[in-house]
Design brief:
The chain has helices at residues 33-47, 81-91, 103-109, 111-120, 160-163, 169-174, 190-208, 223-226, 230-244, 254-257, and strands at 53-57, 72-75, 96-102, 125-130, 133-134, 140-141, 179-186, 213-219, 248-252. Helix 1 crosses helix 7 (190-208) and helix 3 crosses helix 4. It has a seven-stranded mixed sheet, sandwiched between helices. By secondary structure, the chain is of the alpha/beta class. The longest helix has 19 residues, at 190-208. The protein has ten helices and nine strands.
Amino acid sequence: MTVPDLDMEQVTVYQRPESFTDTNTHYCPGCTHGVAHRLIAEVIDEMGIRERTVGVASVGCSVFAYNYFDVDFVQAPHGRAPAMATGVKRVLPDRFVFTYQGDGDLASIGMAEIIHAAARGENITVVFINNTNYGMTGGQMAPTTLPGQKTTSSPNGRDVELAGYPIRVSELLAKLDGASYVVRRSLHDPKNIRLAKKAIRTAFEAQARGLGFSLVELLSICPTNWGMNPKQATQWLEEKMIPYYALGDYKVNPSVAEIKV
């Protein structure tokens, strides 16, 4: 048996970002909200903007985001995070203001707020978690639920003749003149997680340069409400969600394209 060299130099390969609090998570096992949180916290740390950042929490699984980030935070009514972020940013234009919203919050209850914030070109950053259901309230059908996808309120699968088609938020907002940076990424494997972090950094850098509204949509898994284990949920995202919600850049203004991260 080989005896390990106890004198080996130890190297730290993982530590909690300074922009995180020492708080146990309330998210379900396998949920990728925690991954998205960490990416945001890492970007805040790397940019050195923790004391100048204000987050706006929506209602949904993300409602307790303010417990995890060691930055200033406010809680918005359901769907109203873009409106609150608009107010904060206009009163405190030197702050970095971001919202953190799920698909039920942003694409249903808050659709008017997100559309008009983008149309006005508000200089805020939106992180949009798309897991195709209302996660906090029991897994009901959301505006992003896929055709045929079963949820607690569509047990036979989403019928597009009754409920309409899923809304592709990134494609919709990219058509608005006020939007400067609108992209879709995914959290299903290491490569795409790295690309997601790069997109979040670009969105914050765009805000630093006063380039207007930016949104990073992140395809995310919800094993509990999908009735799957994390491995199955990750495979389902890759096989079912990505073909419908294609990853890519939907709006990148020339000034944003010049940002190097």
